[in-house]
Amino acid sequence: MAEPERxxxxxxxxxxxxVRELLADVGDxxxxxxxxxxxxxxSAVSTVAISGVWLxxxxxxxxxxxxxxxxxxxxxxxxxxxxxTAALIVxxxxxxxxxxxxxxxxxxxxxxxxxxxLTTTRETLRENVEWLRNRTR
Length: 137
Description:
Shape: rod-shaped
Strand content: under 5%
Number of strands: 0
């Protein structure tokens, strides 16, 4: 079998064409990386917004729990024991639920920080740099 002939630029025009194509590819690559970074940032911002909603809901439930607990204390002083006990139980339950929701919101904020690191963009940038190095050899 004959060995395939290597293509080598023979004149200035072939070299300038190759450089032009390489620069066009690099431009496309940069645009693609910027688009990827924008998409990742949008996703991270969306995650932060949703986490904020969870946190606000949790804090609102904790606030309601405080109201119920205050009503329970008031009822304990002003009414019979069974009514105040019921109000106290409701207040504690709302407090526990609010604490759980707030905890979930804080956890979502922590995971959103990882999304802001743009790990996918960094990974593809490394791959593209390697591809460019191999192409220019």
